[in-house]
Amino acid sequence: xxxxxxxxxxxxxxxxxxxxxxxxxxxxxxxxxxxxxxxxxxxxxxxxxxxxxxxxxxxxxxxxxxxxxxxxxxxxxxxxxxxxxxxxxxxxxxxxxxxxxxxxxxxxxxxxxxxxxxxxxxxxxxxxxxxxxxxxxxxxxxxxxxxxxxxxxxxxxxxxxxxxxxxxxxxxxxxxxxxxxxxxxxxxxxxxxxxxxxxxxxxxxxxxxxxxxxxxxxxxxxxxxxxxxxxxxxxxxxxxxxxxxxxxxxxxxxxxxxxxxxxxxxxxxxxxxxxxxxxxxxxxxxxxxxxxxxxxxxxxxxxxxxxxxxxxxxxxxxxxxxxxxxxxxxxxxxxxxxxxxxxxxxxxxxxxxxxxxxxxxxxxxxxxxxxxxxxxxxxxxxxxxxxxxxxxxxxxxxxxxxxxxxxxxxxxxxxxxxxxxxxxxxxxxxxxxxxxxxxxxxxxxxxxxxxxxxxxxxxxxxxxxxxxxxxxxxxxxxxxxxxxxxxxxxxxxxxxxxxxxxxxxxxxxxxxxxxxxxxxxxxxxxx
Length: 527
What we know:
By secondary structure, the chain is α+β, with helices and mostly antiparallel strands. It has a single domain (132-525), classed as CATH 1.10.630.10. The chain is 51% helix and 8% strand. The chain is built from 22 helices and eleven strands. The chain has helices at 3-7, 13-38, 44-47, 50-56, 73-76, 81-91, 113-120, 132-136, 150-163, 166-171, 173-194, 199-216, 229-246, 265-294, 305-311, 320-334, 336-351, 353-367, 382-394, 428-432, 448-451, 476-493, and strands at 98-102, 105-110, 197-198, 405-406, 411-413, 416-418, 423-426, 494-498, 507-509, 513-515, 520-525. Helix 11 crosses helix 22. Keywords: Heme, Iron, Membrane, Metal-binding, Monooxygenase, Oxidoreductase, Transmembrane, Transmembrane helix.
């Protein structure tokens, strides 16, 4: 090989080192630029809209940048998300409004009553972000997740006029009372057998049966020793759906992961929906057959939700698939929320025997010793109602109001510009534990609700556990009536005492805010 040819393979040291230095310099600049991009207030998703935001608003929304690309993802994979977000908002002086990102999803969250009202009562936030599990479980065709529009407005009319009307709530009063008395009997049996009771399971099965009667018009036998095949199947379907809705799904925030279904959420949802369709379609057909046999003769019973949907006028009538979605969602909205809230209340009764005794004295003065408490007694039990309100304040079942809102167009919240497509949340737990909003917020004091008229149905954002505005929970009145009656029955029947292991108030946020360790206590019979 000639010297000329050989020289082609000899590295030119000076030239190579200069190129390498330049490449390293470019990499360093790129790294700094990308890192600075990720460090923008609110994180990656907000940084992607930075130029537009600067044109619309001079004031950036304060917020953590989170981890590069991931944002605050790990705050949502833990069990105390509401507390983490409350602490971040306080430390960043972002209580009124805080921006953050999870992957490519842009969020704002309010921890203050005024900005919470701006979000929940604004037509700009009339939609909900539909996560994959909710979509696959058909909830985009039900009240909770249906897109804002004529179909959703029709569902809201049906809910207000038919499903949750005062007449219908009152019509189910006798059945609520019957279920409550059944739980009292179950608790007595467990006390005889075990000397203590894990109250969550009793409340869960009672609440599930209450919803089944309201929705399907029949009761089921639930539990480990049940011989009711339909009841066992239904309990499994509800438990699976509840778990799927509570899972943090990475695909919701990282679109490129969607087709992979790494967590198996889509597969599990589709398998569940196939079973749900068969189960609910059979119940709908049974109702239709019953109508044919009776010649559509109306009886005096209030009818269940299936009857209501079948009775709708032609212009409002739903398809069978939409009926299944609506009925299925009703089951999720009404089952565990009631049971979880009652478990928190009873835990507080065990820890505060003076408050428990005061409530029992109130029931005694109104009801006496010769009859059982009923719905008609509840308006005369203000202290019992105050206990329910105080528990909702300290342990809101939906501390982040369960399901978020979605900005359907550009809007303002206070002085801040919010682009369309932003997910908005309210940290109700932070509001109800803020000493600037509530005096002694960490003390359990039902008396605070005896002194002033604080409504909890959505108009007062200091305590709005059922949400507010267009997307307020449609079943709030029925849920409250159920909780108040069952609490009155349980307090009239038992004195609630701690077991040997005491009471642990540790929290665990799944779909709802649950007790991390189920309440095990003693129920000493009173009557």
